[in-house]
Amino acid sequence: MLVDKELIHISDLRLLEISKDAEQRDKFIVIKSVPMERRLLESLIDLVPIYIASMLITMNPGRGGFLLIYFLYYFLSEGIFGTSLGKKILRHQIVNSRFKGINLGNAFLRTLGRFIPLEPFSCLGDYSWGLHDKISRTFVITESEYHRINYLL
Q1: pLDDT digits (tens, 9 = 90+) for 8-49
Q2: Is 70 exceeded by the pLDDT of residue 6?
Q3: Cβ(94)–Cβ(83) under 8 Å?
Q4: Around 101, how many Cα atoms within 13 Å sit in the side-chain half-sphere?
Q5: CA 6 to CA 29: how far, in whole Å?
Q6: How far apart are CA 9 and CA 93, in angstroms?
Q7: pLDDT tens string 113-137
Q8: Hey, what long-range contacts does 66-70 have (CB within 8 A, 24 or more apart)?
Q9: DSSP states of 79-121 as a string?
Q10: Which of the ends of the chain has fewer CB neighbours closer than 10 A, N or C?
């Protein structure tokens, strides 16, 4: 059971200072995000049901219908289940800043953030912490990391 340690995401700037001090390092457990390549793969998997639903519902995978389905897909799947199909297949979990499951408010902000131009490029980098993650203060971690955190808490 975690009593006197604080969970900290690897993107937290305090790590620069913490890593220099051995006494400080013992006070934290570092949580890592899913790598960029896996985030890209989960996005590609998620596009399949979005495209199919767009074709079936609107009979035209045009821009308007696709964007509505895209919004509803992410908002509802992440808001209700805390994950999307792509994340579930790859065993990823979305967590809030306290490393607990997200709610509809987090999912709404995440989904809105995805509509910012060039937002997908914000996931590039060492921590794969996209703009939609930052806006909603959420992280994507592996299910095993999620279970490890809950065990420690």
Answers
A1: 666 665 555 555 565 665 666 777 788 888 989 999 999 999
A2: no
A3: yes
A4: 12
A5: 6
A6: 14
A7: 999 988 888 877 767 788 899 899 9
A8: 67/115, 70/114
A9: HHHSS-HHHHHTTEEEEETTSSB--HHHHHHHHHHTTSTTGGG
A10: N
The per-residue b/e assignment along 81-117, b for 16 or more CB within 10 angstroms, e otherwise, is ebbbbbbbebebbbbbeebeebeeebbbbbbebbeee
| Axis crossing angle, helix 63-81 with helix 36-58, rounded to the nearest 10 | 120
Per-residue model confidence as pLDDT tens digits over 38-96: 989 999 999 999 988 888 887 765 667 888 899 999 999 999 999 999 999 999 999 98
- The token pair at 32 is 């890592």
Q: Supply 28's token pair.
A: 């934290």
Distance (Å, whole) CA 113 – CA 109 = 6
pTM given for the model: 0.82
User: Cα–chain-centroid distance for residue 80?
Assistant: 14
Q: Is 25 helix (H, G, I), strand (E, B) or coil?
A: helix
Q: Is 7 exposed, middle or buried (0-12, 13-18, 19+ CB in 10 A)?
A: middle
113 contacts 63 by C-beta, under 8 angstroms:
no
